[in-house]
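hey so i finally got around to running the thing on that chain from the lab meeting. sorry it took forever, my laptop kept dying and i had to restart like 3 times. anyway pasting the input first so we r on the same page abt which one it is
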Amino acid sequence: MILKRTFACLCLLLAGLAVTAQERPKLVVGVVVDQMRWDYLYRYYDLYGEGGFKRLMNEGFNCENTMINYIPSITAVGHTSVYTGSVPSIHGIVGNHFFVDGKYGYCAADSTVKTVGSNSTVGQMSPRKLLSTTIGDELKIATGFKSKVVGVALKDRAAIMPAGHSADAAYWIDGKAGRFVTSTYYMQELPAWAERFNSTIGNVTNEDIWNTSLGNRLTAGMAQAAVEGERLGMGEGTDMLTVSFSCTDVLGHRYGTHSDKVRDIYLDVDRRLAGFMSFLDEKVGKGQYLLFLTADHGAANGIKMLQSRKIPADGFMIKSEMKAINDHLAVRFATQERLVSMIMDYKVCIDREAAARAGASYADVKAEIMRFYAGRKNIAYVIDLENVAAATVPAVIREKTINGYNRLRGGDVQLIMQPAHYDVWADEIGDGTTHGTWNPYDAHIPFLLTGWHVPHGSTTAQTYITDIAATVCALIHVQMPNGCIGTPVTRITDR
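ok and heres what got predicted. didnt touch it at all, straight out
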């Protein structure tokens, strides 16, 4: 009898430990606000309502000193790094466009799949170029693939990369058709709930979707439709939803960091965020979901604005730079070949086949490129990407360069611009801005959490974009992604 009682007690204890070990929220929600500088939390604070950014700051946990620890700081790389906890050298998404097997192409392009939801080619996308797992992939594995994972964004790459390989779906906009679409990577036809939501969009233009608050409304609306349609967070297990607001990036590029239009789009994001969290409170339960918010990158202050205030700034004019370097190399190596195929995210890419046709060695061409740019006042450092460790640059720049370089996906010489100098693709400098460098204006991003087991507080301790996935995985008790190099924020996870 005593033995039976002891065995029964042991079974109950083990069962209790199992429940504790698997304790998770009903839903994990990741929100990325494209091109959101960290200081936008404070620049517009007095204009925000109580239920959006202020709720995150006043009820949740705020990591004030979160930095991107690689270059380039751009959309596809940022969204991927948030959800993999990794860097381009490991997860493989080294830019919006890059080389794979010697062919230059788009990060999510996949000609083996077809569009689902419209007759265009905008759905020929998948995460197949992503080399590591995401939070969603690991959640799926941890739950025996019972969890549902869905990604929503206007941009395909902002929906696909966060959701990961094993996602149930990722949805993005076909602007010309005015519909959310997906690809046959995920399904053969849109679910009924997605078709119903598309039917409510009405007659809209591509311009309005991307350049007005309509894009935010559609993003938040599609996210809520996905929660209801897929019953995310309403079953026995833990589900995940990734959401990205993309209009902020488009308007930032067009109008710059201090325009009224950028201010207004952030106030609209604030309202959408407040409405979305109230919706989750009702549908999933307040405190029953874990929500985190961050950005894929920041943005530089406008060149013209800085120059008008006597602050050093200038453009790196890509078209003229491409002509200048190729003209220089043509004279140096007595050839008509274009030895530089492109300047990609401040990486100079050598066309090795063209060099061979010109009878020039790869090493000689690279050395000449480095000599050419070493004499330029608008360039702080020139780095041989095959020998970054030997570069005489500050440690933080060396680390970001190493983390951003994938030897199989392109780039031979890394250019590090002077502060407030950045690439301009137009023929002249405009009022807008861009991003992509190591500097704080591009690399300092928000990271806030609220909900499930998140204490109220803040920290100014150094945190990296790669720590986001590690922190979320620690909170929900799943293994971190298989390329993750991040560390959980202990002020949040130790409880």
